[in-house]
Fold:
Amino acid sequence: MAVKIKIEGTDGDIFNFEAITTPMKAGQVIAFISSDSPFVTKSMKEILPVPTVANNETPIDLIVKYEPKTIAQKISVFALYLKKSGKDQFGIGDIKDLFRRTGLISPTNLGRDIKTAFRLRYIYGDANTDSYYLTNVGEDEIKSGFKSEKSKKPTNGNRGGVRSRLEIRKEVSLLEMEVNMDSYPSVTSPELNKSTQILWILEFARIKGVLSLNSKEIENLATKLRLGIQLSAIAALTESSFKRGYLRKRNDNTYEILNKGSEFLKKSIKEE
Structure:
């Protein structure tokens, strides 16, 4: 990707510079202009205004420092910048403005990319009020260099994106599944949709001593129960449970049911 830089003199100054360069070099120019160097004139700062935070780190400094590759990752880095500058809550307009002010190409569908950052749990908020904030997961991902994303390997035939290579652990393969569980509704109950059935499987495994399951293990146990839950659908089916605090995703990329999710399941049997 190329970036065009143009600097012109003001107040009658005879100065004109225009060049095509890389985003990295453009970022260095912007960082220099936004610094307190005595060689930077006020008129030059007015050409490329870039906000700074208390420690003098500009948005482009953070982009260079953390090297986000995807738009969702860049959104999370901008969210970190806003947090450091004292703005915990932000909207789409704030992100658009930072793309513009740092000279990065603004995405054509920022709303979609915000949703992607939300799905990856980098940010959380409400689209209706256009109010978001950086999550602890997002901040950890930034500081780790987005290791969890880098660890995902593409698999043959998966045109929809990347998928990590998952294996079924021995303790999971040895689980003998039953459709009934004391104090809980049957997993085949018509009251349970597929999202709730996933919670049921996680709770069943927890009671049997397996505290968390990866996506492939969930699919395997669902197959034993003849529930027809496909691996490719698990991320979407668990999204609402994440929002409601019923489960969490651990650092090893496995799903773990939380107390709130267990209580929700127990309540379901009373409503049948």
Q: What stands out?
A: Residues 37-54, 154-164 have pLDDT under 50 and may be disordered.
